[in-house]
Structure formats: structure tokens, C-alpha cells
Amino acid sequence: MSESTEPPTAPMKGACLCSGVQFSLDGAPENVFICYCTHCSKNAGGEGQISAKFRRQQVHVECGEQLLSVWTLTDTLSGSEKEKVFCSRCGCTLWTVPMKHGGTHLIVRTSLVEDGLTRLPYRMEFFSSQKTNVAASAVKSFDTMPGY
Ligand SMILES: [Zn+2]
Ligand SMILES: [Zn+2]
């Protein structure tokens, strides 16, 4: 059995930063995870990146197809290429396509989906040895970003 979440009642909608690319997702992902690998960390601008694994036919680009650009990562740990698909206008990564299984799945950034971080909570973490484990008690917390 896979770790599927409950299927949502309506397709979920998502967009890049500039909303030039808009997409919808049919049904539940096969998995939702946070990954701390070097690629994900660099791309997320933090220690990890949260993504949901969908079959290609579950992901529909509603508009902005012409804005989609692809960067192919070859220095992967699996040895198989991975396509990073991003918006050429705002630079936002939309999903990656691991070629290990012939490109059948899209690994979609859940933060791009409306309420995605709560509707698609992650259930697994990968490369957990690369977590920074900064002590929460050492972090001063603000509701907004003061002074910037
Ligand atoms: Zn964009
Ligand atoms: Zn990763």
C-alpha cells in the first residue's frame, strides 16, 4: 500500500509566483514528502523542499504552457536524469520529473497549491541526515519581518 492521503473532492489549483503558469491536480498524490538532499535544499532556499508525487496524467497545465522551461539535472544521486520544470518569467520551480521511471510522475511543490502545505501534509522525509536540526529555542520569532 502507498501512503496516499484522502482524495480531495475537487481538483486542487496551483500557480507559480507570477501566476503566469496555472495548473490543477486531479485526485490524491501517491506520496508527499520533504527532501533534504542538496538539490532540494538549494532549490528551496532552505534545508528542505516539500513535494507531492503525482502521476503525469493527474497534472493539468491550465495556462502558461509557453512559459515552462526545463533544466535537466544530471548529477543526481540515483544516476538518472531529473528534469526541473520552472516558469521562465518568474523563475519559480513548478515540479521535477525523475527520469528513473520514464518520466511517468511529476514531483509537484506543495507550496504552490492553494492551501497545499496543510491540504498535502508530508508523511515522509528523505535525506534526513542532512537536516540542520537548529534548536527551536535558539530562534527568535516574529509574526512579520521587522526592519526589512
Ligand atoms: Zn511565473
Ligand atoms: Zn531532494
Give structural notes:
- This is CENP-V/GFA domain-containing protein.
- Pfam families: GFA.
- Keywords: Lyase, Metal-binding, Zinc.
- 7% of the residues lie in helices and 34% in strands.
- The protein contains 2 helices and 10 strands; from the N terminus they run βββαββββββαβ.
- The relative contact order is 0.23.
- It has a domain at 12-65 and 103-129: Metal Binding Protein, Guanine Nucleotide Exchange Factor, Chain A.
- The protein is globular and about 45 Å long.
- The longest helix is centred in the first third of the chain and has 7 residues, at 38-44.
- The strands form 2 sheets. Strands 6-7-8-9-4-3-10 form a 7-stranded mixed beta sheet. The chain has a 3-stranded antiparallel beta sheet with strand order 1-2-5, with no helix packed on it.
- It is mostly beta strands and 148 residues long.
- Bound molecules: zinc ion (2 copies).
- Residues 16-18, 20-21, 87, 89-90, 92 line the site of one zinc ion.
Strand and helix layout:
Elements: E1 12-15, E2 22-25, E3 31-35, H1 38-44, E4 49-55, E5 59-63, E6 68-73, E7 82-87, E8 93-98, E9 105-109, H2 116-119, E10 124-126
Parallel strand pairs: 3-10
Antiparallel strand pairs: 1-2, 2-5, 3-4, 4-9, 6-7, 7-8, 8-9
The site of one zinc ion has 9 residues, from loops.
